[in-house]
Write a structure and sequence with these properties.
Blueprint: H1 3-44, H2 49-52, H3 54-75, H4 91-101, E1 108-114, E2 118-119, H5 124-140, E3 146-155, E4 159-165, H6 194-205, E5 208-213, E6 219-225, E7 229-230, H7 239-242
Parallel strand pairs: 1-3
Antiparallel strand pairs: 2-7, 3-4, 4-6, 5-6
């Protein structure tokens, strides 16, 4: 997978989060309009205009019908892909692909420990997008340099844990509760979508995401992949895929 393919998948993930946020906001606004229309209808029923002009009731019915239709459109989802087995990959393969494309600053030192043996039910390119979001978020937290640590390991109950940790300044206590919100960021000039993409992917697959302070400062994010299949040795990563990782 080249840089262009990874960027294409990143753009698709960003579009998915933005669309989901817009749907949520629009549903809230439609609910407010519906409540306002219901109140006005109750007030109009108390007046002579309600019985004198039949169009009044007709228009209120039209408002309710169109609101219901709009809410139905916002609730629709694309049909899931069918046919063929679900893709699986070793998390280490996604990590290696993401790191091979990462543009790590000179002041950032990379440490990785990839020991998992299980496979997760996800396409390796999509897993690389998830890792890229975590890596980019960690690098942004270390503008003056530091250590980026990426680890994978098997856990009990057929799970695999992916942990990405930085040695940056960390988050303020009040920021932890909002870190996964779309467009929330503590760094001017950044979109605030990386952790939202990770969180959305985890919700879609039933995984768990944990965010906290690192043992030596900075922040860590852990993704616990559940429903993991015991896999054989990881597929080898080609020499060209390791180029660019530091």
């Amino acid at each position: 997978m080249g840089r262009g393919e990874l960027q294409s998948r990143e753009r698709a993930a960003v579009a998915d989060v933005v669309a989901s946020t817009l749907r949520h906001d629009l549903r809230n606004k439609l609910a407010s309009i519906r409540n306002a229309a219901f109140y006005l209808m109750r007030q109009m029923k108390k007046t002579e205009a309600w019985t004198a002009d039949p169009r009044v009731e007709t228009f209120f019915q039209l408002i309710e019908k169109e609101l219901a239709s709009a809410e139905e459109l916002l609730s629709k989802r694309s049909p899931p892909a069918s046919g063929g087995p679900r893709p699986h990959c070793h998390p280490r393969d996604g990590v290696e692909r993401a790191l091979a494309q990462a543009d790590l600053p000179e002041g950032v030192r990379l440490e990785r420990e990839l020991t998992e043996k299980g496979e997760v039910a996800l396409d390796v390119e999509d897993l690389a997008v998830l890792v890229t979001c975590l890596v980019d978020n960690a690098v942004e937290a270390m503008p003056r340099g530091g250590t980026l640590t990426v680890r994978t390991r098997d856990v009990e109950d057929d799970g695999v844990c992916l942990r990405v940790e930085d040695t940056g300044e960390g988050l303020a206590p009040e920021a932890y509760s909002r870190a996964f919100e779309p467009f929330f960021t503590t760094r001017p000039g950044h979109a605030g979508l990386g952790l939202s993409i990770v969180h959305r992917m985890a919700q879609r697959h039933g995984w768990k995401v944990d965010l906290g302070a690192g043992p030596s400062g900075g922040t860590f994010v852990e993704v616990l992949f559940t429903g993991v299949e015991a896999g054989a040795a990881s597929r080898p990563v080609g020499r060209d895929e390791n180029q660019g990782s530091k």
